[in-house]
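User: Just a sanity check before I run the rest of the batch. Below are the C-alpha cells for the first item. I only need the designed sequence back.
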C-alpha cells in the first residue's frame, strides 16, 4: 500500500496531474462595449459624431465630440445566463482629452466576458469536478486627428486581458482494495495583455455622418499556474489569439430634433480556452429624439447572426438629461434580449462630465 501511494503521489506531483482541462464554456458569455447612449440606440455608435465618449466601434468619431471629458457607466442584469447571474458590477470608463497640435487622446476600459461554470473532470484512473470563475476586459488607448472640418482619422492600441481560476476536487483510484486518494488543487489562468491596432476613419457633412474601423488580430501569452493543496506547484505558458474585428456605421440628422443611425459589426471565429465561438456579425439600428429642456429619448434594435448568441434579437430604449447645456449628462437605458428560448433584461446607468463641468 505504501508503495502504491508513493507512486501515485510522485506521478501526481511531477507536473500537471490530472492534465489541465480548459473550461467547457471557454471565456464564458461575451458582452459588447459602448456607452449608455449607444446601448439605448441598439448599439449604434460607429457613425455618430457627437457621442461625447469613446466609441470602441470607431474611436475616430471622438474628433467631432462637442465636449471632451470623462464618462462612466455600469450594467445590472436579470438573466438566466449562469455566467452573468449575481456577477459583480464592472464599470465602463471613457476619457477624451484635447492635446496640442489638434490631437485628441482617447482611452476606454470595458467588460468583455464573464465565466461561471462547474465542469466534470475525467482522466485515466479517476474523476472529479472543478468550479471555474473568471472574466476578461478590453481597453483602448489612441489618438484622433482632424484632417479637415469633415474628416478625421484615429489610430491606437486595443488590448485584451483577463483571468480565471478553478477549484478542483478529484478522486484518484489506487490498486487493490484501498480507498481512492482525494486531491484538491487550484488552476489559475492569467491572460496577459494582447495588443493589436485599431484604425478608424470618420466623415461628416451636413446631416450625414459615417465611419468605419478595423482591429487587427491580437496575440498574447497565457500562463497556467496550479497549486496543489498542501504540496508543490506547477506552471506552464501557452500562446493565445484574439481575432480581428470590423465596424461600420452611418447616421443622419433628419430633423434638428431627430437622429437615426445604423451599425454593422463582424468578427472571425474566437478560439480561446478550447471552446470556440463561431464567426458572425450583428446589425443595429436606432434613433434619438430631443424633445427639449435637455432631455433625450432613445430606442433601437440589434440582431445577431452567429457569435456568442446566434439568432438573438435585442430591443433597447433609454432617456438622457443634459446638464449645463451639455457640459454634463445623466443617462439610463434598458434592454430586453431573447435567444434560444431564453431572455435577459439589462439596466445601464451612466454619468458624463466634460472638462468645463469638472
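Assistant: Here's the designed sequence for the first item:
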Amino acid at each position: 500500500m505504501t508503495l502504491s501511494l508513493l507512486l501515485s503521489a510522485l506521478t501526481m506531483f511531477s507536473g500537471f496531474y490530472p492534465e489541465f482541462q480548459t473550461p467547457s464554456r471557454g471565456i464564458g458569455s461575451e458582452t459588447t462595449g459602448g456607452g449608455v447612449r449607444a446601448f439605448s440606440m441598439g448599439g449604434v455608435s460607429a457613425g455618430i459624431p457627437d457621442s461625447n465618449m469613446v466609441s470602441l466601434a470607431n474611436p475616430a468619431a471622438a474628433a467631432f465630440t462637442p465636449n471632451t471629458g470623462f464618462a462612466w457607466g455600469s450594467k445590472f442584469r436579470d438573466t438566466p445566463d449562469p455566467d452573468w447571474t449575481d456577477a459583480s458590477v464592472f464599470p465602463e470608463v471613457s476619457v477624451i482629452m484635447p492635446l496640442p497640435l489638434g490631437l485628441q487622446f482617447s482611452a476606454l476600459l470595458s467588460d468583455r466576458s464573464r465565466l461561471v461554470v462547474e465542469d466534470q473532470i475525467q482522466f485515466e484512473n479517476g474523476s472529479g469536478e472543478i468550479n471555474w470563475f473568471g472574466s476578461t476586459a478590453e481597453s483602448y488607448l489612441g489618438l484622433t486627428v482632424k484632417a479637415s472640418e469633415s474628416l478625421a482619422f484615429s489610430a491606437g492600441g486595443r488590448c485584451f486581458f483577463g483571468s480565471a481560476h478553478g477549484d478542483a476536487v478529484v478522486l484518484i483510484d489506487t490498486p487493490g482494495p484501498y480507498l481512492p486518494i482525494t486531491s484538491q488543487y487550484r488552476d489559475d489562468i492569467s491572460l496577459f495583455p494582447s495588443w493589436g491596432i485599431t484604425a478608424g476613419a470618420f466623415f461628416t457633412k451636413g446631416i450625414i455622418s459615417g465611419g468605419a474601423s478595423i482591429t487587427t488580430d491580437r496575440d498574447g501569452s497565457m500562463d497556467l499556474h496550479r497549486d496543489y493543496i498542501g504540496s508543490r506547484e506547477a506552471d506552464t505558458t501557452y500562446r493565445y489569439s484574439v481575432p480581428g474585428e470590423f465596424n461600420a456605421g452611418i447616421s443622419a440628422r433628419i430633423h434638428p430634433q431627430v437622429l437615426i443611425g445604423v451599425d454593422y459589426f463582424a468578427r472571425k471565429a474566437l478560439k480561446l480556452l478550447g471552446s470556440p465561438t463561431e464567426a458572425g456579425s450583428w446589425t443595429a439600428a436606432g434613433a434619438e429624439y430631443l424633445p427639449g429642456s435637455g432631455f433625450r429619448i432613445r430606442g433601437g434594435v440589434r440582431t445577431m447572426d452567429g457569435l456568442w448568441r446566434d439568432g438573438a434579437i435585442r430591443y433597447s430604449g433609454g432617456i438622457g438629461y443634459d446638464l449645463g447645456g451639455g457640459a454634463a449628462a445623466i443617462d439610463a437605458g434598458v434592454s430586453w434580449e431573447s435567444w434560444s428560448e431564453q431572455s435577459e433584461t439589462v439596466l445601464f446607468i451612466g454619468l458624463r462630465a466634460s472638462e468645463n463641468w469638472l
